[in-house]
Amino acid sequence: MAFTLVIQSKGLFSKAKSIDFATLLNNCKLSYGSYNDFYTMDEGKTKSGTAILFNPNRIGRGIFFDSRNINKGEIKVEYNTPTTTAEIEDFVKVAKEVERQFGKASFHFEDENKYFSSSELEKMIPQMSEFSLKQLNEGSSKIDNAQYILTLAKFPWYMDDEAKEKYKTAKTLDDFEETIHGLQKDDVYYAKPSLFKDGKSGKILAFYTLTSNCESYFPVKPDSFLNFDAPKIDEAFIRFFIYEEEKVVEGHYPYDKFVEFIKEKGATKFDAERLRVPEISKAEIMEFVESVKQ
C-alpha cells in the first residue's frame, strides 16, 4: 500500500511551475536514483521526471518523487508501507520543501480525498508510523508460506522466515528501520540477469555476470528476480569479467555449478533468496572455469 500526496501550487496570481531539485535534495539531506526493470536502483539518475529519494544515513524503502505535472504546478510524493519512521519524517520534509519553493501549496491525500496543511501533515507522523507498524505486523503474518518481498530504496528484499516471525509481533519500527538500512548501506553489487531468447530453440536464457574482486549479492535460484514483464527463464548461466584487466572471460557456465562454487568460497545468506558473495579473485574464477571444463 502507498501513501500518495499531491502537492499543488497555490500562487495568488500564478502557479509556480518549477522545482529546484538540487536545492530540495540539499535542504532535505537526501540522495536519489531511479529503478531499472529489476527494481534495483541506478543511483544519480532520474526517469522521465521521476526519482526515488532516500536518506543515505537512514536508508528505507525510498520516497517516490514525481514532477511530471510540474507545468501544472503539481508535485506528487509517495512512500510504500510498511516503511520506517525516519523515512516518514523525510517524506514530510520533502513536502514542506516543495511548499517552500512553491510559496504556497495545498496537500491532497488522493486515496481518501483529504486535504492537509503542512503543519497538520507534520503532526500526523506518529499516526503514519503507527499505521506502518500495523502493515508490517499484518504483512509478516499473512505471508507465512509465501514470499514476502519488499522493494527497498536500492533493491528488492526477500524477507526470510526468521524476519517474518519477528515482525509479526513487533511493537515498534526501530528494528525494521535498523535492518533495512543495514541491508543497503554497503557498496555491494546486486546481481541482475540479462535475458535473451535463443533463436534456434526459442528458450529464454538468463546470463548473470560476476566481476572479480567485487563483493556481490547473487540469487540461489536464477529466476529469483523482480521483473513483472520478464518471461519465465529456461536456462541460466554465469559469465565473468576480470576487473583489473577490463577483460571478459571467454564462455559461459552453468549457473547451478556457480552457486556451489561461491558457497565453497564463503558466500553467506543475505535474505531468503540471495547470497552475499565475497570478493572472488581472478585465480579463483579461473579455477572454477577449468573445473567446469573438465
- Class derived from helix and strand content: alpha+beta
- Provide the residue-averaged pLDDT: 93
The SSE order reads: EHEEEEEHEEHHEEHHEEEEEEEHEEH
Number of domains: 2
The strand line-up of the biggest sheet is 3-2-4-5-6-1-7-8
Unreliable stretches covering 5 or more consecutive residues:
none
Beta fraction: 25-35%
Would you mind describing this structure in some detail?
The protein has 294 residues and is an alpha+beta fold. It has two domains: 1-185; 189-293, no CATH class. The chain contains eight helices and 19 strands. Strands 3-2-4-5-6-1-7-8 form an eight-stranded antiparallel sheet. Strands 12, 13, 15, 16 and 17 form a five-stranded mixed sheet that branches. Strands 11-14-19-18 form a four-stranded mixed sheet, with helices on one face. A hairpin with an 8-residue loop joins strand 4 (50-54) and strand 5. It is elongated and about 70 Å long. The model has no long low-confidence stretch (mean pLDDT 93).
Comma- or semicolon-separated keywords:
about 290 residues, alpha+beta, 2 domains, 8-stranded antiparallel β-sheet, 5-stranded mixed β-sheet, 19 strands, about 30% helix, about 30% strand, elongated
